[in-house]
Amino acid sequence: MVWLANWVMNQVLVKSCYGFARKLKSHGFHWGDLSSKPLHQPSPFPNIAKCDLECRGSQTLACDFHKVLLRTHSFFPYFMLVAFEGGSIFRAFFLLCSCPMLWILNYEMKLRVMIFISFCGLRMKDMENTSRAVLPKFYLENLNLEAYEVVASVGSRVFFTTMPRVMVEGFLKEYLNADAVIATELHTSGCYFTGLLSKSGLLVKHSALMDYFGDTKPDLGIGNTSLHDQLFISLCKEAYVVINEEGKVMPRNKYPKPLIFHDGRLAFLPTPSATLLMFMWLPLGFLMAIYRIFLGVFLCCKFTLALGIWSGLILNFNDKNQQRSESNKGVLYVCSHRTLMDPIFLSITLGRRLTAVTYSLSKVSELIAPIRTMRLTRDREQDGETMKRLLCEGDLVVFPEGTTCREPYLLRFSSLFAELADEIVPVAMNAHVTMFYGTTASGLKVLDPIFFFMNPWPRYDIQVLGKVPRELTCAGGRSSHEVANYIQRQLADALGFECTNLTRRDKYMMLAGNEGVVQEKKGRRFC
């Protein structure tokens, strides 16, 4: 038995070292790419750039997803998004630590390990939220333009991928109008993933294509130059390959659907190298966030702004409003809404005491806020009385969108503010981050300021526009809806954004599956 155990161990070590040496010799060490590089050979199929897009409306397409529609070489960033956003920071760290092992393993074992780490013990509900609210942004940003144009030209689309179905099906059906998604199935137990594959194992694309289409052949097939993909697309009547996997970047104006809402904390594609840098920055970033929050909350003085800028905060301020208040009431500042810090930055840059009204602010954030805040009730009459009273006491900041939006769009403005004041000053605000988003729809809102200030160089652009002319307000005979639409258009033009009719309710229904109203906890739930 000892002899047998030694022999097995020797075989494992020899094969592992041999595989490692072959990889090192063939590809060299590339930290950013953890996907196995399958054997490539000159393809007998033409480049996808030569595909004619005309008269394909009645044709059926069979298409690979990874390395064809997506420009990224590795599965790793998408599994990291599942681990970090759907799981926890500890799961994400464990996945990062597995990188040296992943680099040595073959393609199938690599996928199995990443699936196990990312999904073992993960709630199905958390994966659904990640698939719906987080992954589509990164898929859209990494679409291959040439491949997408071919996909969009056909009438029926069937996608095949070795990635887990739960990671791709929602995106492919909602954004690319997929008729079917054939992918790897995962094993579940109750409301949780086990991290194992179903009995069918990893998807074999050419076998799956034959099983799905039977004796008929799809009209068009798209793959890459790997032997497996060439076998896959050889079963189609007409086939093309994506030779330049990096492809052309998909511009925002060509997205299949506008990307208006998305959730999650990570603002970058978490490749292995980028994720490593993030974890190296976290300790310093957390201390930097505490320091910046301390400046705003406890050290409210004329040096606060200078100390914040010294710490890496970038603040661009432009005040075009030279007119002063002509009444005894306060000025009503109507702002676009990017993060919970909007009114604080506006108060600091204006050098004036402001009161902010909000619908959803955590009790901790409300407690430590350096400016006065007032919670609204969503009762139009009651909220109107509250805001009128606050205007009589001083300047007031309102956010008619009712919630934050990360992308260059403005949500529909509530018209309540237009009925309350004749002196209205629009303020165009925009926030820029590089590592973490300072907003969330389904996470803990109390962490929003911490995540925002953990960015190495968080940036705020604040542009105070001129006071709205009296003849364009309700006092000048305009309706409250006309005033709200006029100010929305003004702010959109100043920011370079687009106006939408979407509301706070639309955002939360899309991202969190609820209407954004906190419900009382009636009991403990496990699924």
Automatic annotation (TrEMBL):
Location of this chain's protein in the cell: Membrane
Chain coiled-coil ranges: none
Gene Ontology terms: biological process: cutin biosynthetic process
Keyword check for tRNA processing: no
Example of a GO cellular component annotation carried by this entry: membrane
Pfam families per record: Acyltransferase, HAD_RAM2_N
Primary residence: membrane
Record SMART domains: PlsC (SM00563)
Membrane topology field: Multi-pass membrane protein
Keywords linked to the UniProt accession: Acyltransferase, Membrane, Transferase, Transmembrane, Transmembrane helix
Membrane-crossing residue ranges in chain numbering: 75-105, 266-284, 290-315
GO MF: glycerol-3-phosphate 2-O-acyltransferase activity; phosphatase activity
Name of the protein this chain belongs to: Glycerol-3-phosphate acyltransferase 1
Taxonomic source organism: Glycine soja (Wild soybean)
